Amino acid sequence: MAQQFVLKTLLDFASAHSLRGYPGDCAKLHGHNWKIEVNVAGNQLNNIGMVIDFKEIKRHAKEVIKELDHTFLNDHPHFEHINPTAENIAMYLYKTIHSRIATNEVTLHSITVWENDRNCVTYSE
């Protein structure tokens, strides 16, 4: 079995949303302090013993998250026609960060989106 390293870094952002068509309070405007776990995987270490520098992971993830921070997510172009649920946010972050970070040696393993201390969703491909 081949070795694999999974690196995790945590980020956060604050935003508001409302869930269209939801039969409850989440249909109303409300906000979250989202916590994001970015998990990157690789099986090769570079010449200094790293899969990838944590600074690189954070740089790419922060650039993506910056466009969501302190916004009304429903106004974001990606969420015009789909609800900004935790699931859809996780999938959006995964696909967007993956396109920036994936190489032959490194891939985005998964994204976990926490909407509060008790509820989260993890997305991977």
Describe the protein in words:
With 125 residues, the protein is an alpha+beta fold. It has one domain (5-123): 6-pyruvoyl tetrahydropterin synthase/QueD (Tetrahydropterin Synthase, Chain A, 2-Layer Sandwich), CATH 3.30.479.10. It has two helices and four strands. It has helices at 54-66, 86-101, and strands at 5-17, 30-42, 106-114, 120-123. Strands 1-2-3-4 form a four-stranded antiparallel β-sheet, with helices on one face. The mean pLDDT is 96.
Question: Low-confidence segments, ≥5 residues, pLDDT <50?
Answer: none
Shape: elongated
Number of helices: 2
Helix content: 10-25%
Strand content range: 25-35%
Give the oligomeric state of the chains in this entry, treating copies of one chain as homo and distinct chains as hetero.
Answer: single chain
Query: Can you summarize the main beta sheet?
Result: 4 strands, antiparallel
- Report the order of strands and helices: EEHHEE
Q: For the CA atoms, what is the radius of gyration? A: 16 Å
